[in-house]
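Table S2 (text version). Query chain:
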Amino acid sequence: MAALVSLTIESDHSSRDLEMMEDWIRGFPEIAGSVERTRRTIAPSEMGALGDALVLAVSSGGAMGVLRTALKSYFDRPIRSKISMTVTTNDADRPTVVIDSDRE
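Corresponding structure-token output:
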């Protein structure tokens, strides 16, 4: 059974960082086709909305391991930015994970 995994990013450039994460994950053929960007509803006072989260449908076996590898390798890169990523699933038995990276 596939789990739905949601990735959200908070940073000074959240939409850019989310787009970079999406591009990075799409570089892993085993999970590239399972990535979908969700968008939040635009409030009346706003001019537009950008992607809020990446959602992936991954199996608990190989695809989940590939996602872990993708996230680890993304945060291992020498980029200077502060990013907080929250990883959640639709599986109540799996905890929400927050990854904070201060790479300055």
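Notes on Table S2: The chain has three helices and five strands. Residues 62-76 form the longest helix (15 residues).
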